[in-house]
Sequence to fold (295 residues):
Amino acid sequence: MVRIVEVGPRDGLQNETRQVPTEVKVAFVDALSLAGLPEIEVSAFVSPKWVPQLADAAEVFARIRRAPGVAYSALVPNEQGLDRALAARADRIAVFTAASETFSRKNTNASIDESIARFRPVLERARAGKIPVRGYVSTAFWCPYEGKIGPAKAAEVALRLADAGVDEVSIGDTLGKATPDEVRALLEPLLPRLPAQRIAMHFHDTFHRAVENVLASWKLGIRAFDSSAGGIGGCPYAPGASGNVSTESVVEALRGAGEDVPVDLAALAAARALIGGALAPPRARDAAGVLEPRA
Ligand code: HMG
Ligand code: MG
Fold:
């Protein structure tokens, strides 16, 4: 059985040039709740100075209608974020660091070491409150500032997160540039040290290889994938990156591979239509097909 984590309301909306009204975000999450997805990443309790698009995280959490069986999660960078996530009754939280030093600094104003040190108390308190924690490793394949990231570096950071006590490590192709060979080069040596049940793969789709990468990971035993309805999204601190792999294409690809994926595509289409009208028009692409960074 595969698990799809819908990250559209967080990863999809954090980079929007338009301010999406809170009520539209709430309606988007509520519509996604009808699609049979087991987990929805609702928002981020990060600094609103860094990501003003998600400054209304607490209000979104307060207003969504929680469906039974769905876990509503949030990104948390530090203890202040955890306080806010607990007050909002997030079911799960996600901490985040990177395999690239430069990206870590640009994204969190901290080195990799500092970011891990910062979330150790977050992990302790989450564990005490029985809240499951995932840890993201961003730029696990390519970094917009440092270029190619070796698989050994990304695996090392993934193992450090696992050792620090996260329940699940989500390995991110932030730039959407990885190839299936690169996915195998990272996962094959990692899997004997970190079981597939503790790994999720998080692909962005800039070069349209994300579905191939999902299938390459699936063939190696990975059963958890992050995606966003309609493939919306990007990271404000990763210029050139486009949206996540779409939930629709992950569902279709995994069904094609023989998995039973209990997601209602009609409900997903309704959610995507609902948010589509609130988003800025798609960005232009440069000659290499890469999305131009937003101004
Ligand atoms: P900093 O500026 O070094 O932190 O930012 P600070 O502690 O000096 O705080 C600065 C101000 O922010 C202070 O306010 C704090 O109170 C406030 P002031 O005193 O100036 O009025 N603040 C907060 N407010 C609310 N909630 C908080 C919080 N923390 C501080 N939690 C910090 C450090 C980590 C906070 C900042 O860099 C940050 O928020 N970064 C988040 C960036 C982000 O969200 N990036 C996108 C998500 S990661 C991603 O997309 C990748 C992923 O999808 C996987 C993949 O694709 O690879 C997950
Ligand atoms: Mg992402």
Notes: Strands lie at 3-6, 39-44, 71-75, 92-98, 133-138, 142-143, 147-148, 168-173, 199-203, 224-227.
